[in-house]
Amino acid sequence: MPDDRTLGYEGYDPADERLREALCTLGNGYFATRGAAPETAAGPSHYPGTYVAGVYNRLTSTVAGRQVDNEDIVNLPNWLPLRFRTLGTGGDRPGPWFSPDDGSLIEYRQTLDLRRGTLTRRMRLRDTRGRLLTVDQVRLVHMGDPHLAALRTEFTAEGWTGELEVESALDGDITNAGVDRYRDLDGRHLTEWRTGPAEPDTIWLDCRTSESGIRVAMAARSRTVSDTPAAVRLLPAERGVAHLLTLPIGPGRPVAVEKTVALHTSRDPASGDPLHAAIGRVRGAADFAGLLASHSAAWEHLWQRTELDVPGEAGRILRLHLFHVLQTLSPHTARLDAGVPARGLHGEAYRGHVFWDELFVLPFLNLHLPEVSRALLMYRHRRLGRAVGAAAEAGRTGAMYPWQSGSDGREETQTLHLNPRSGRWLPDHSRLQHHVGSAVAYNIWQYSQAAGDTDFLHGPGAEMLLQIARFWAGSAVWDPAHDRYRIRGVVGPDEYHDAYPGAAVPGLDDNAYTNVTAAWVLCRALDLAAALPAPRRHELFGRIGLDPAELELWEDVSRRLRVPFHRGVISQFEGYGDLAELDWDGYRERYGDIRRLDRILEAEGDTVNRYQASKQADVLMLGYLFSPAELSGLLARLGHTLDDDTWRTTVDHYLARTSHGSTLSGLVHGWVLARTRPAGAWKYVQEALTGDIADLQGGTTAEGIHLGAMAGTLDLVQRGLTGLETRDDALWFDPAPLPELAEYGFSVRYRGHRGIGLSMRAGHLRISVPASDRTPVHVSVDGSDITVPPGATRRLDLPGR
Ligand code: BGC
């Protein structure tokens, strides 16, 4: 493994702190904690946050004179607090508590070590009497035992003798206040605090969420490692509790405080009272060195399962992306009832909700941690009943998955959103993005193909897929004027367009992305209905009341859904071609960054709905999801010829009219251009790579990383550049080489094969199958099929493009 697995910062910069906190978050798929300084509380430069996957709470607030309900992932009690101050000898008055903002820092370095999964800080500071103190701190959120975290802080006095006071606390006085735009919403989710001591060195805090009633308990053990034992005092408070340690310190006698924390909630599987669980777990926890060893071993194992070898800067960023993906969705997630949070467990943007972003995440996981993909699909399956209910309420059939999903699968999309530029609260119609259902269906199919999991496909997978197909068939309305089925009143992935200019009702007709993916869903549902063993088909059809005659409608709709075209390109939706052209250069000149063109235009009293201007890939998403052959096949089935020229013209058309207001946009454009116009692809791939590390969307990363874009860049190497498909019991490749990313390697898990090695080097692809595997792997490249037996490596020369 190359050695550049670190993200380092020299110097302290309060303006950069919230971004660093997000990028230095530590987590284990069960919970995560932002990389906030333990000496600080929430404020303009700091935002400590701890989030457990799937722990939500709902509150009602009054916004713009209206009552609005919001469900949020809850910022839980803060386990980090550890502050310190120096005393002289003989118990004289202590100096002030140290803060990185108080001007005493003379040296500061912070390093995120991806290999070990630790965040370290080294600080040198001068106290108010001019004495120098060095502080070395390491923290971890345990990847082996998902309920544990630890913080070790070592203090070294430089040439002086005295005392040090260290306060190690659990702070329950926490609100959700991490996103400025949500400041008008109530963020007080915690209630009923109780605190106390458990053992002489252990404190605990117990509270619950106000509406969802989830109990959250933490226990913290604080021990000193020094020659002379510390004096310990308990400091109870209403919403928190602390231990105050007084430590003698002198030159050449560093002292350390090890804080070990356990976190449990009443949502944990196989666990009883969360407080007993937390106290018991911390009691049995090893010391810091022991925890670090078991934690690093768990990470080493994970890195092996997700091997990725990409040279240079791209490789460095990709490993950071992989690290954050694994911290959000790890094998521990597979035990939970939780979905894919769009912003990781790294912040409060989008309130921890689950969107369609799993479309960019699961295809990567399918080939490394299939059990995690399956669990994430089960999150959707448990909410199928709710989606069926939502469709019925809307007068539709089948399952209508919500655009934003949280605890119980109801629609969580807000009804109003704030334009920070104009200060106006505006109606939010993004819930009309019913295409989220097709994302679920796509993942069901991809997962089942990659993992060979027929039990899932014929079981929960079929229940979802058939109901999603049914929703599309039922949503399609026959229009004799066009001699086509139409799906009307939707919003596509480009969220800028949510209505026709001047229209009284929101929604657009014939969104090409929605319709082509709906046709694909119908085709897969028909395939699956035919493949189900007869008793299962009978049972399932009977249970959901599916008449085989409905399948005839599915067949018909899958061939006759409308896909609009204008001037030789696929139209994003009916009427798109009639919209005005935007003066892109003029707006760029005036505003510089025009990613959020929707906000700019609204603040000017205009609306983006009037223009041919998109936030992110919409039509072009089709080139992301489907190989060129599959896409032209789908369109042919719908009665259209999609040749290379038409596709290329379509790509150019939208490329010139997209503002990339979502991190997903650069990713999709890079992916699609790698196949159509490779010379232009790298710029977008780089946007996707640097989106979070350079905070390209201007301040949004501090509110949480963009998980879809991070996982998507990993999948760009895995499937995008290789053209890898898993179907018909074989691995298919159709490489699209990018000169800037021409050599790489990774390993995949595929249908029970562990660690199939793949590497791309100048003009050839090398595939090796581990000797421990029992069966060979079938591979197809450029029309030739080969079989690689266990223990063998094969080299395939690739056709020039
Ligand atoms: C994007 C959506 C995405 C959401 C959550 C939005 O900005 O437009 O496509 O699902 O963020 O990541």
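^ beta-D-glucopyranose complex. The pocket of beta-D-glucopyranose is lined by residues 342, 350, 355-357, 493, 495, 615-616, 662, 664, 708 (CB under 6 Å). The chain has 20 helices and 33 strands.
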